[in-house]
Amino acid sequence: MARGYPRHFGGRTSVNPGFLIKDPRSRAGLRLSGATASQERLAFLNEASTRIGSTLDLAQTCREVLDVAVPRCADAGGIMVQERLITEGEFPARPNDGTALVRRVATAVAVENPFDWDRAFPVGEVAVYPPFLPQGQAMATARTVLVPRLDQGVGDDNAKAFGRDVIAELLPGCSFLVAPLLARGNVLGFFVLVREASSEAFQDADVALVEELAARTAICIDNARLYARERRTALALQSSLLPARMGQLRTATQTLASLDLDPAELLYRLDRVAGRLDLDQIATCLYARYDVAAGTVQIASAGHLPPVLVRPDGVAETLPVVPGPPLGIGSEQYELCEFPLPAGGLLALYTDGLVEGREWNIDEGLAKLRALLTGPPHGIERICDMVIRTQCPHSDRDDIALLLAKAV
């Protein structure tokens, strides 16, 4: 197969972290091809519009896009977003050579060997795509790149660039389509679709469809970016308005934590500090210390809600921590409580905003939290997302926090 150069198509500017596995048999009768009627393509885009952008969460938006695109448009796909856009909410300058730092936010596959593709292109990877790769070309030129069939050389180049031999095994013979995600004249990242050697190659007629899908995706990603940036700004402003004595209390907590005191002694000393600061509002605190060798956790509470322990068998229970008075009131002592925390156990700490609301009281909220945490083990990030989304689906409050710690 001749190496050659990929063909370019003009990109169109719009106004403006998950791995999905699909059954490869679902391709039959679903695949949009170059010969697909325009009416069917329009119906596909209308359906995509209703399913994409249901949330202002960037990662969820990317997963929704790939859920629509695979296998209707391709056997595999991925979305890469510029790293600074994710971490800072700002448009980075576009390098002329396309060497931008991007993160793989989501991927989807409808293939027989899905986990080979996951090893080759892991979600969450932050990387730079060199300009000699189609992905780098799309970023540098802001134009869609179509490679009807990838030759072995391109597969080897990708494998060498990312240090994974499995890439050189998967890509040769595949059809490759990379569309830049364009918003406000800037490249947010790129949207890549792949068809295996056994599937029909991408054609010129596929470019317009994928560019339209990429444009709609870019709008949703940019909206998520703006929301995240505004939220960070609001939180920073809120933090700056906290009373200076509260800032001192936080500093005191960090200092005492470095002394390796047991939780009860730490809260006793912190209470004395709070008394000298003359706080104008009540502050609660729960402090825990994990002993890896003993497989136990020591906990003391200054008026805070009790933590929830998820045992390795998946059963969640509220720990009977004896609460003392809030900080600054002047307690003579705080009770030290100790519980088993074996490997695989999960400890959940939270604020009252997570379990108390207009719809239910704290007891009901705690019961709901335990029910959500009970079950087979999942990744910590997935558990956090699920709990926050279920407990606070429409809340704009900022007094909601959930901290999960897993014993290993």
Automatic annotation (TrEMBL):
<feature type="domain" description="GAF">
    <location>
        <begin position="47"/>
        <end position="231"/>
    </location>
</feature>
<protein>
    <submittedName>
        <fullName>GAF domain-containing protein</fullName>
    </submittedName>
</protein>
<dbReference type="InterPro" id="IPR001932">
    <property type="entry name" value="PPM-type_phosphatase-like_dom"/>
</dbReference>
<keyword id="KW-0378">Hydrolase</keyword>
<dbReference type="InterPro" id="IPR003018">
    <property type="entry name" value="GAF"/>
</dbReference>
<dbReference type="InterPro" id="IPR036457">
    <property type="entry name" value="PPM-type-like_dom_sf"/>
</dbReference>
<dbReference type="InterPro" id="IPR029016">
    <property type="entry name" value="GAF-like_dom_sf"/>
</dbReference>
<dbReference type="InterPro" id="IPR052016">
    <property type="entry name" value="Bact_Sigma-Reg"/>
</dbReference>
<dbReference type="Pfam" id="PF07228">
    <property type="entry name" value="SpoIIE"/>
</dbReference>
<feature type="domain" description="PPM-type phosphatase">
    <location>
        <begin position="216"/>
        <end position="407"/>
    </location>
</feature>
<dbReference type="GO" id="GO:0016791">
    <property type="term" value="F:phosphatase activity"/>
</dbReference>
<dbReference type="Pfam" id="PF01590">
    <property type="entry name" value="GAF"/>
</dbReference>
